[in-house]
Amino acid sequence: MYASPIRVSARFRDEAGRTHRYVLDGLVLLRKPRALRLDVHHVLGGERVMGAGSNDESYWAWIGPELSTLWWGRQRHAGRACVDPMPLRPEHLAEMLGMHPLPAGSGSLIGPAVVGDGPFDRVIYLGRQADGLFAVEREYFIDRDPPYLIREIVFHPSRARPVDRFVETTDAATTGSVRTALNGYRPAWPDGPWVAHRITVSWPREEGLLELKIDAWRAESVLSERAFERPDPSRLGLRREIQVDRRCDDARAGPSPVADD
Asked: Which of 41, 68, 171, 203 could form a disulfide with 208 if both were Cys (CB 3.0 to 4.6 A apart)?
């Protein structure tokens, strides 16, 4: 179990096209492989205004008071084309924090395949799409020299529509790619693993941006399981609750991928 104070700068666009900006302080909790909690508030203190988290069953993110919404989905549907967009993908956040090794290439992912790309090795994983074809699902750009640090991660969306005669439609993806730059590497603690302490997550299509500055990780031996429970939106004073994978129970959406830990 790991914890750290965190500074967050965020920019999100709502459904009406309005842009919202935040500068926040908070705390991030992480327990491998999937348990994560991020709670942040205005730099001057006060009530929480944004949060995200995940556990073995579900993931969620919420923003208030401007958006006053909690989005959530189930882990078994993560990565499917039937999942609607949300401002932040908590199921990716633990990996973005740099606390996970590269995927093993089992379950829903096929890989890795390595391509030389300038000063980096580009490590590619494929995923099966709803139409049965395969497409690039994740890319990692890794230093070619020791200690082989991950510099960028790109999560590509699944296609929401099938490919007709192997020609991809222009609106095939529900959301755009998620790009994560990892910088400020140093040991998480004395003699600990090297991890990024400055992380920038961008959603180019949605014009979203999330900048995370990690203070200092520390090991936490005891923490209640309730810390990783999906919150009740009414207790947070939120007006809306949106299940982003509500369409995934439709059999026409295709089979669920097998989780890859």
From this structure: 203
- DSSP string of the chain? -EEEEEEEEEEEE-TTS-EEEEEEEEEEEEETTTEEEEEEEETT--SEEEEEEE-SSEEEEEE-SSS-EEEEEEGGGTT-TTPPP-S--HHHHHHHTT-SPPP-S-TTEEEEEEEEETTEEEEEEEEE-TTS-EEEEEEEEEESSTT--EEEEEEPPPBSS--BTTB--TT-BSS--EEEEEE--EESSTT--EE-SEEEEEETTTTEEEEEEE---EE-S---GGGGSPPPTTTTT-SEEEETTGGGGSGGG-PPPPP--
70 lies in some domain = yes
Does residue 259 belong to any structural domain of this protein? no
In-domain check, residue 260: no
Owning domain of residue 150: 2-253
**Any idea what the CATH number is for the domain that residue 8 is in?**
2.50.20
Q: What is the pLDDT along the chain (261 residues), one digit of tens a residue?
A: 788 999 999 888 877 788 888 889 999 998 877 788 999 988 776 778 889 999 989 999 998 877 899 999 998 888 777 888 787 777 777 777 766 778 877 666 788 999 986 789 999 999 877 677 888 988 999 999 888 999 999 988 765 444 433 333 333 334 578 889 999 999 888 888 888 999 998 887 777 888 999 988 887 767 677 889 999 999 999 999 999 999 887 745 455 454 444
Domain total in the chain = 1
